[in-house]
Amino acid sequence: MKPGNTLLGQGGTTIFTVMSALALTHQAINLGQGFPDTDGPADLIDAAAAALRDGRNQYPPLTGVPELRRQVAAANQRFYGLDFDPDREVVVTSGATEAITACLMALLDPGDEVVLIEPLYDTYLPVVRLLGAVPRLVRLEPPHWSLPREALAAAFGPRTKAILLNSPMNPTGKVFDEEELGFIADLLQRHDAYAVCDEVYEHLVFDGRRHQPLMTLPGMRERCLRIGSAGKTFSLTGWKVGYVSGPAALTGLVARAHQNLTFTTPPNLQRAVAVGLAKDDAYFAGLATDLAAQRDLLVDGLESLGFRTLPSGGSYFVLADYSALDPVRDDAAFCRHLTEVAGVAAIPLSAFYVDRAPAHHIRFAFCKRPAVLDEAISRLRRHFSEFAEAGAPEPALTGSARSF
Ligand code: PMP
Ligand code: GLN
After folding, report:
1. CB-CB contact of 223 with 193 (8 Å)
2. Residue 132 belongs to some domain of the structure
3. Among 34, 212, 377, 401, which one is most buried in terms of CB atoms within 10 A?
4. Which atom of ligand 1 is nearest to the CA of 232?
5. Phi, then psi, of 108 in degrees rounded to 5
6. Residue 52, phi-psi category: left (phi > 0), alpha (psi -120 to 50), beta (remainder)
């Protein structure tokens, strides 16, 4: 038999699914895959339920229901002063995941180069490769994750079509500042390139920081496609409603890609998300304040156990260096061990690098109820103190857990 698609055949199951399954098997607290453990706002859920019952259950318009497109445009204006025509410059997608693929399809021809920044979200590289485009990887390194300007500039060339930029960034929690964005904007202009801006964590930004879309910088309005996710903004990750805002010349192509991927997104969920985007500023501020408190709770607990956490300015995630607790295991083996033996799941940082990942770092999700975070810390404390009391190093796992 002829094999199926080679690239897909070579790829494994996503780390988020692998670790969630392992957490389930071992009844571990799942601080791996990033999803809140409480439902989003009740009024959105009520709006979605009501929308199911009022007779608009056939195909909605290709680019999204008008009320959601209007609210996406209004939110762009309210939060960033960006002006979009809701009829021509907004496309609703089935999650940011689809939006990322649709934007890359909209921009790339085979052979085009795309600049990607490591650590990178797991769908970026496979999609770029499936489209026959050529990834040019630039690495950020802990603990500061500063932009390596020379390496970034060197990654751009005559064949560069786009950069894919994730800010606030998963898994680092880095929020790109205006100077860094300015450097990227300058490269885009000099090389006549575009940016796909994955801004799913736009409203999850902490400590008085502000998320700034690359698109707000001079000259960037025509070069950027900005992606948002209702899953993150309304703590409803299973809904899979995303939205792309951009110049009509590009969103027209995104719509063509979308028509070949899913064509539309469930209309009741779209209409409920429209209700969400119209919420007052206090909702958005409260979301970030609550999450920052959850981050602090987890960070304090991890630090007290001997993890060294890295600053997280946004997103659902904090990275922790565990080398003082276990200098031997690699990050994948350590995550597997924590899940199976300590009863707490996390994600190895190496899942976000193609190779040579910084050693001994794992990602914890803090988008969980405080009582759950407390219980996770208690489990870890029990686990590490048992071994400390026994005075013996923990038994190393045989083999590598890097099978995923
Ligand atoms: N981009 C990043 C950086 C993410 O962390 C996620 C996580 N879920 C997505 C995109 C996908 O978002 P959605 O669930 O809306 O598809
Ligand atoms: N974005 C989520 C994370 O980083 C996972 C989403 C998924 O499982 N596809 O944890």
Report:
1. yes
2. yes
3. 34
4. 15
5. -100, 135
6. alpha
Best probe residue, ligand 1, of 94, 166, 200 (max atoms within 8 Å of C-beta): 200
CB-based contact 360:331 (threshold 8 Å): yes
Contact 229 CB / ligand 1 (< 6 Å):
yes
Q: Which amino acid is at 204?
A: L
| 134-181 pLDDT tens trace | 999 999 999 999 999 999 999 999 999 999 999 999 999 999 999 999
108 and 66 in a single domain? The answer is yes
In a domain, 400, yes or no: no
- In a shared domain, residues 298 and 332: yes
CA–CA dist 233, 242 (Å, integer): 10
The secondary structure of 300-339 as a DSSP string is: HHHHHHT-EEPP--BSSEEEEE-TTT-SSS-HHHHHHHII
Quickly state the pLDDT bin for 8 (edges 50, 70, 90): very high
Q: Could you say which ligand is closest to the alpha carbon of residue 93?
A: 1
Domain boundary among 261, 280, 299: 280
Residue located via tokens 């650590």: 119
First to last CA, the chain: 26
Does this model's pTM top 0.70? My answer is yes
CATH code of residue 168: 3.40.640.10
Helix H or strand E encompassing 397: none
